[in-house]
Structure formats: structure tokens, C-alpha cells
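Extended Data, panel c. Modelled sequence:
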Amino acid sequence: MSNEEKVVSLSRAKHDNDTKQDSKKDNDSRYEPVYCSFCGRPNTEVVKMVKGPGVNICSECTMIAVQYLILEDKMPSGAAQKILDAFWTKLE
């Protein structure tokens, strides 16, 4: 998987009118690393990165947040626990 495929941009979905400008920006910054706003790691060191308007979050920080939300004050459902276990096992 190339570094380009590891970054998903949410801001592009909001600005379909500016596709020419966005694609030019994407081509110019294609090889620049994208850093997680939470842990500071670049997209080259994480599984995936979601790029938003002014903020980025890596898949690991996303799963930590999801795990916190699921586990807050209750046990996760069996299905939710399987998803969490599968994600953390895949990273090892």
C-alpha cells in the first residue's frame, strides 16, 4: 500500500466544486507526510490517516477513541469487542 493510499481526505468531499484546485494541491503535496494531530506520527508510520479540515487522525488514535467511547461505563457488546480485538491483533 503506497503512502498516498494511506491518507483519506474528508475535506475533499465538502469541496466538490474545487476539484481542480484540490487535485493540484494533492499532486503538489503527494509526497509530503501527513501528521496525526493527536499522536504526531506521520502517515508513513501508521496503518491509515484520515485528513480533515485543519485536523488529521490516524487509525490507531481513532481506535483508541472508539475503544474509550465503547468502554466508558459499560462492557462492549460481543460484536464491538470482536472489532476491537481484530484491529489490535492486526497491528501486532
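Helices lie at 11-14, 19-28, 59-71, 78-91. This feature is highlighted in the accompanying rendering.
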